[in-house]
Write a structure and sequence with these properties.
6 helices; two-stranded antiparallel sheet; alpha+beta; ten-stranded antiparallel sheet; Dup_hybrid_motif; Cell_wall_metabolism_enzyme
Length: about 375
């Protein structure tokens, strides 16, 4: 039988595959819009690269599933062989008892065997022996029936695993073909940008400096809010409720994460480092941004280059939504999970509109990707 941990691992891998497929669908929509509106740009290259990463996750996930199913298939094959051997042995024993019983019945030897006893005690003992043979026949018949049912179940499970492995092999071949096509698409996009390396490097460096300046402003806004609240919000029940939603918060906008959290290499420009205290989610301009969880709007503010921003408090936690064109909420307003709070702002020419999203626990910065669902 499959162990619960094995079933759980398979389920988790399949969930990862489905999440990556959903990400690719979102990217496909955005890539089409980006090419149509802007042509081939640095942000378009970033989307294509992110798509390739998701496809690689799918291929690796399917290979993990195939490996697991192959091991289970081997175990099932051994189990079926063991049960078949046990069934054949039990069937032989049952047949032997039936032959003895039929021979004695045909020769009427049961009665002769009992009546030839020396005394009553011997006759009772012989009668018990005869009944015992009958009981053994019934027991063997019942065991044979149960073992036959178990063998049928295991054979069915074995065939199911074989079919599953065949389906995974077909899916794997299709995904490898897609991966090859997307690698060619990435190279084509990179080739289209050749000759613009200096310009792109300067653009990436400009964005990095701009992001650092904006992050300093957001850090000051967080510090001001924590100082203003005096730590009172941390003691409320909303803190525990928010923590329980880790990994399951609503996505703030329908889009694709193109700039990850923390210090990392620039996704397309070698030698450029990016230190992001949140994540940037590529989305269509004008897309509706929603609050990820119940809370109170603590600040609605504007920073040059960052558009409108909204800060929402959820007990000890803060979420920040930036690069908004317009906002639908005001300071002090209570908002619910899914409440619309604004729309994604348009981007400069040649750039992809994005929502900048951050999560804080008071003054401690957190990785938003660990909090939102996929």
């Amino acid at each position: 039988m499959l162990l619960p941990t094995s079933l759980c691992a398979q389920k988790n891998v399949r969930q990862e595959i489905q999440a990556a497929k959903a990400e690719i669908e979102r990217i496909n929509r955005l890539v089409g819009d980006t090419r149509k509106e802007q042509g081939v740009t640095l942000d378009h290259l970033k989307l294509v690269g992110t798509k390739l990463e998701s496809r690689q996750k799918i291929v690796q996930g399917i290979e993990t599933e195939m490996s697991g199913v192959t091991v289970e298939l081997q175990d099932k094959t051994l189990e079926v062989a063991r049960l078949q051997e046990q069934y054949d042995h039990l069937k032989d024993s049952y047949s032997a008892l039936l032959r003895i019983s039929y021979k004695n019945y045909r020769n009427n030897s049961y009665l002769s065997f009992i009546f030839s006893a020396r005394d009553f005690t011997d006759a009772a003992r012989r009668l018990y022996y005869v009944k015992r043979i009958g009981a053994q026949i019934e027991q063997k018949a019942d065991e044979l029936k149960q073992l036959s049912a178990k063998l049928g179940t295991e054979v069915s499970a074995l065939n199911s695993r074989r079919a599953e492995l065949a389906n995974l092999q077909t899916e794997h071949a299709a995904e490898l073909k897609q991966l090859e096509a997307e690698q060619a698409q990435l190279k084509k996009t990179q080739d289209a940008l050749k000759g613009k390396e200096k310009q792109l490097l300067a653009e990436a460096e400009k964005r990095r400096k701009q992001l650092e300046a904006l992050e300093r402003q957001l850090q000051r806004a967080v510090n001001d809010e924590v100082k203003r609240s005096g730590g009172q919000a941390a003691s409320g029940p909303l803190t525990a409720q928010f923590e329980a939603k880790k990994g399951k918060l609503l996505r703030p906008v329908e889009g694709v994460v193109v700039d990850k959290y923390g210090l990392h290499n620039h996704p397309t420009q070698k030698g450029v480092k990016v230190n992001n205290k949140g994540i940037n989610i590529a989305a269509k301009a004008g897309s509706q941004v929603q609050c990820v969880y119940t809370g109170e709007v603590r600040k609605v503010f504007f920073f040059q280059g960052l558009g409108m921003s909204v800060m929402v408090r959820h007990g000890a936690y803060l979420t920040i939504y930036s690069n908004l064109e317009s906002t639908f909420v005001r300071e002090g307003e209570q908002v619910m999970e899914g409440t619309p709070i604004g729309t994604v702002a348009k981007a400069a020419a040649g750039q992809q509109p994005t929502l900048h999203f951050e999560v804080w626990k008071e003054t401690t910065n957190l990785n938003p990707e660990q909090w939102i669902g996929r």
